Please model this.
Amino acid sequence: MSMRKVAVVGVGMTKFVRRAQETPKELSWQAAHMALESCGMTMDDIDSACMGTAPDAFDSVHMKGEYLSDGAGGWGKPYMRSYVGGGTGVFAPIQGWYHVASGMFDTALVVCEEKMSSYYPHGQAAFLTIFDHTTERPLKPNLLWIFALEMNRYMQTYGLSKAEIAQVAVQHKRNAADHPCALLGDADITVEDVLNSEVLAWPVNRLDVSPVTDGAVAVILAAEHVAKRITDKPVWIQGVGWTLDTSYWTNRDLAYPRYVENAARMAYEMAGIREPRREIHIAEPYDPFDYKALHHLEGLLLADRGQAAQLYTDGIAARDGDRPVCPSGGLLGVGNPIAAAGLMKIAELFWQLRGEAGARQVPGQPKRGLAQAWGDLMQVGTVVIMGTNP
Amino acid sequence: MTSKNREFPGTPLSEKDFEQGKILFLHDEMNGQYAWDTGIGIGRYLAALKEGYLLGSHCRRCRKTVIPPRTVCEQCFRPMDAFVPLQDTGTVNTYSLCYVTWDVQRITEPEIPAVIEIDGASPLCGIMHKLGEVEPDAIHIGMRVQAVWKPPEEREGAITDIRYFKPIKEKGR
Model:
């Protein structure tokens, strides 16, 4: 394919908090401003703007993309908001990537924002409308149902215990203790803490779930000739992939995310990766629930089916292990402002691959990482592979 | 950058800030009302529920029978070939014991949502519904269940015409 090389050259991020005083526009601006500052650019250098943000229901604002445009640097630019549910945070940079890879623009500002706290009494209720209005919503489902149902099927299929899965929450929340923006970092949390937390929807306990969060993240993408002028350490987007499975979620295999595999294979092929377990040095799979990180590691072909928990048991997934998983702290630890959470994983890879992740730095000069998100009614897979080589 | 940047923007608020009146905010309620057309596929499904049976649809090319029925096969993007009446029995594919309501209020008696693979549909093809007349401890994946219907005069052509699914007593027990 005759596409231009695209690099991430700057990133910015707000703190992830339970409730921010700032409005969605203000959070977006703070992240975008920090991203520009980080690489010495101004809006005059930005050719296009991409916005990622999840359901309009959180803010009760129609045309949320336009609403956020001034905070997201969209004014007077080619600007578009994308939305693929929870997958948005890794899809928005893919949109920015094809803006630049196509030759259409030399630079793109990508901003993802979420403010879940405005919805009363609890952000979860905004998700009611993802269920089919005629065949499912009369049963008064809540969002936890589908996760609990999928987690139970996953556990049963592979004979996994809740304790094995809880290791994921523990590791991610411990990793997040080193993230200056984290909402739920906890260096001392144990598997018992997770197992003893309140049961919300068995097999899901409170600490198996990521929290309702406000926050924003921004990244700046540039074509090769621009990127090399801006920084001597660009982080290249080597591969992207995204796919969708059937929206009839009760008609498919809940134990294995086929759509993630399809997205991953697309990205691996573009990046020229044949052996992902050797060639991906850092994985940031989407982890709104602890079992989802395992589910996704398997879909990404980074673990055999039913075997991802073993990576945690054996220390392979630890920050200083052979194949670190979510050194950022993930959604479980840093927080889950839906779209911003996915882009946080892109920001983490940027910092890690430049050796700038501070206390979270993965040792051994990692050269390549993968970020993945997932969403809609459990059927969108989005994958980005980033590396130190073009 | 996190090794260089010590300060990140964003101002966290706590409940106290609201209780003590330190923060100004506007509270509003949105009231959206809708009347959703059922369409052709789901319209037939609801009509069948009113009659007291479950309906699927069949794609000959994909050799697949799915539920709820639809007019187009998303796999081959052709029209479905036929609507097919299915059994009102099935197998628990997965379930949960849920202690919170849709708006995150706590409840003591759990609701028991489940995905039930319906007899007559293709493997792994089921619907979301609830389980009833069963002790939580007795439920297991693979359990055989049957729909408990509202009486005909109470049915209105809705998924709630089935109250829940209950276990089928297996022979020899």
Q: What stands out?
A: The radius of gyration of chain B is 23 Å.
